[in-house]
Structures are given as C-alpha cells and as structure tokens.
Amino acid sequence: ISGGGTSGTVTITNSMATEIAAKGDLIVGTGSATFDNLTVGSDAQILVADSTAATGLKWATPAASGSLPTFSAYKNASTQTFSVSTYTKITFDVENWDDPGCFTSSTFTPTSAGYYLISSAVYHQQVGNGDFTLLVYKNGSNWQRLYINNPTSAGVARMDTGSTLVYCNGTTDYIEIYARGDSG
User: Fold this and answer.
1) In degrees, to the nearest 5, what angle opens at C-alpha 149 toward C-alphas 168 and 90?
2) CA terminus-to-terminus distance, the chain
3) pLDDT digit string (tens) for 133-165?
4) What pLDDT, on a 0 to 100 scale, did the predictor assign at position 87?
5) For the segment 5-64, what is each residue's pLDDT rounded down to a tens digit?
6) Taking Cα atoms as reference points, which of 82, 124, 96, 104 lies closest to residue 176?
C-alpha cells in the first residue's frame, strides 16, 4: 500500500489484491506494515474488536433482541383521585401487551436482569396552583422523579411525561409509577 494521507490516493499492491479471495473480504492490518485477509462473516453477523484474534477483529452473532420483558399499559376512561400532598400509586387497568407476563397489579417485576427504559405520562387537572410530581418507584421507594411542575393557574389540564433507565436484578426488583398533587 502506498499513498493515502491527505492526497486521497491509495495504491494496492498485487500481494494485497491477492489476499482478497471472495466478496466481502476485508484487508486488516495485523502489525507494523503487515496485513491479512479477514473473510466475510455469516449473514447477520457484526464485526467486533477481539485482541485475541490474529487480525484484532472477528465476526460475531449479536445477542438476540427482544430478550428482555416488555409491557405497555394505560388507564382506561376512568379517573383516579388521591389525597392532596400524598404519593399515590397510579393504577393501570388495560394492557396493550405484557411479554412474558411481568406486569400485574400495576407493578412491573421483570424476570431478566438488565436495564429497562421506564416511561410514563399522566394527564391531570389540579384544583389549585400546587406542584404536581410524577415518579418512578423501585422496590417501594422513590427511585427517580420524572417530572415536577407548578401550574400557573388552577384548573388547567396538563400532560406530564418522563423517562428513565432503571436496572432490575431479574428476581426481586419491581417498578411502579407514583404521582403527587399538592393542590387538590
């Protein structure tokens, strides 16, 4: 190989060209002024760094996607009221999906360890101007505040949303959504 740099011209020598034996092969540097052929991987494999491989790279099959439990739930047309300045668990009465059945009684208890994206939205109307807070609870305690606002006028309906990543151990950890309104 010669050239490159800022000129943008690269010359491939005959010895390098003979390393390419099939469609998809890659020429990979293996050390100072040395190279080798890395043959194409199988369909759907990805190229990853591997310091133990002669070329420093290898083809690997990615982990299966969708292996962690997921769910989507919402509150139907009914409303939920709760006491002023009291953290209250939001109840969900309709499930869009629950794979593989980890969401019951408005509580998500995943059966696989990993990070989960928890998102929630609450449509609410307060009587006064006090704060409204939307929270994620983990194992019965406040884990992350998703949203807090102080409405500028009483009686205005609002949609408050938020998301956070939560690590769950896949056995005992559980997630719930809570809210608190400070004005009735």
Assistant:
1) 45
2) 75
3) 899 999 999 999 988 776 666 677 778 889 999
4) 93
5) 555 565 656 666 677 778 888 888 888 778 888 888 888 788 888 888 888 888 887 665
6) 104
* In the block, residue with structure tokens 């494999």: 45
- Nearest one of 70, 44, 73, 71 to 59, comparing CA atoms: 44
Q: What DSSP line would sit under the chain, residue for residue?
A: -EEETTTTEEE--HHHHHH--STT-EEEEEETTEEEEE----TT-EEEE-TTSTTSEEEEPPPPTT-S-EEEEE--S------TT--EEPP--EEEEEESS-EETTEE--SS-EEEEEEEEEEEE-SSS--EEEEEEETTEEEEEEEEE--SSTT-EEEEEEEEEEEE-SSS--EEEEEEES--
